[in-house]
Write a structure and sequence with these properties.
heterodimer, A: 381 residues, mainly alpha, two-stranded antiparallel ribbon, 66% helix, B: 297 residues, two-stranded antiparallel sheet, 11 helices
Amino acid sequence: MTALLTDRGGRGSRPRGRPELYTSYSSDIALLNTPAKRAGVLAIVAAAFALPFAVSDQVLVLLGTGLAMSVGAIGLNIVTGYAGQVSLGHAFFVGLGAYTAAVLSGDPDGRLVGFGLPMVVWLPAAGLVAGAAGLLVAPLATRLRGLYLAIVTLGLVFLGEHVFREWDSVTGGPGVGRDAVQASLFGNSLTAGGAVLSGAQKVYLFALVVLIAAAVPARNLARSGVGRAFAAVRDRDIAAEVIGVSLTKAKLLAFTISSFYAGICGALLYTITRTVEPNSFNLLLSVRFIAMVLIGGAATISGSIMGAMFVTLLPRFTQQVPRFVPFIGQGVTGGGLLTNVELEAMLYGLLIIAFLIFEPRGLFGVWLRVRNYWKGWPFSY
Amino acid sequence: MTRFGQSLIQGLGNGSIYALLALGFVIIYKSTLVISFAQPALMVAGATMVVFLTGSFGLPFFAAVPVAMLLTALLGLIVERSALRPMVGKPVFVVAIITIGVDITIRVVVNRFLGNTIRNFTSPWGLDTLRVGDVFVQQRFLAMMLTTAVVVAALFAFFKYSRTGLAMRATAFDQETALAQGISVGMVFALSWAIAGALAALAGTFVGTGGSIDQQTWIIALKALPAIIIGGLDSVGGAVIGGLVVGVIEALVGTYQPTAAPWLGNNFAVVSPYVVLLIVLLLRPYGLFGTPEVERV
């Protein structure tokens, strides 16, 4: 018996060949609780770091955008997936983060307000300003439930859009916009090409590092007491209160953390895209984030990343469709039954519907099915 | 005073558009407990049908509107049967998100018909005005108010006196009990979507009268959301009042804000309903006429 229970590097002992038999609580709730997960995550992270040297800059920018969106999707998943508070206002917080970063990093002598501060200031500040706004909005969430909250947060997007449009000295006004975040680390620009790495490679790696720094704490939060409190509030708020979860505290925390992530996402997103236009933080962006969470898988961190990548890469695929399908036209004014732009919009809608009806757990659920099929092979259960 | 009267009439006119849309939202909410975010798409679909029926098919306006209402009601039926019925019993949030998906999908198709141009709307009123005292009143606003009043009265009568209306009220009260009494709850769901579709088409027509519709018109329908929240999600009367309140506030802010509070920026009127929404909800979380949810454990 003792021969079976060989200790594996202090992670709690477990018999060899039985990856799902846990002999201690800490090994059960560990971040990477099976050897397969450990190896898999390591491989994915290594591949992600190697990618910039394998693909073209154009694709890298797209992938970097996907990584930035992932941070935002994780944020929305914390409040909507884990804590169950529907928020259609995510775009507003993303916008706040983008403008905070743009203003703090901007050229002090430029056309618009700017302070020329380094990244160590603007990146956390973008998160903190958005988080503070989230904290201000959260009291609404403690008073309202379900769909009432969804509509209020929708109102927030419209109000935010109005402020962004009208506050010319900061945002540059609609149609003009302002230069986005000026990112540099130790005097090296993160966006301009250098001797070793091109601009796209640098910005991709920057986004990757930030995403990892954001995803790991989020995953940790989800498996901690706070995460379980969120899940309790989501599943049945009254029962949660009865077992001693403070609803107010949980909701405040969920909104603040979610908005913090949204702010970081905004700063990151507009480090990659070179200008910020006030009209881009609209309801459509919020719906895209909702689509990411639902397509990826609610209440999963890896699902958020999958969903964000999927939704960001979708246009790239629909661009290719006209070449193969005759009745799909190219561009906004293209002929045919549908153009690829319309196809993309339609796919959003149809994919949201299809995933919710057929696979409510999203891409993460698809992955679970695939995994369980091979785990059970040759049996079907 | 003239300015006040004019903007009041304009507000009541636009408010009746919001009231029609809000009625659709509330009717769907009462029977299925879901907020349908597909309402904007149904509205532009109805308006687009009117454009094509009067244009390409050469129907007179007063024939085109009922036809468009019927067709949009049919569209509502199809949406309910294909996307919503499979989701009965699922969390309301999930169903609400599905309606967002439906909204996007329908709007893509409608935009395909509309194209990138602005479609002019032919209506018997156009921008003709009527002079009452020293106030110039646009006839279209009067038409909107009158039609909405008639429709609302008809709907209230329908809910109060007809067997089907009674069935709908029973379903809104308790679905299972209604089912046990022999009411086809599925039929009630379908009917509420059809009514909401027809109301949305009528609202879309009024949005177009005296102006035009284009790919951005759907945003107007979202202003019905503050209206239903202000009125209370489950109050039919509240929806009408909420719609009118939103319309009047928007018009008054549009008239007086540029001079009284210019620091709020241009076009503040467009977002003013959302400010009112926030204030009302902070004071009364279930709107002015909504019933507070009572949870039993």
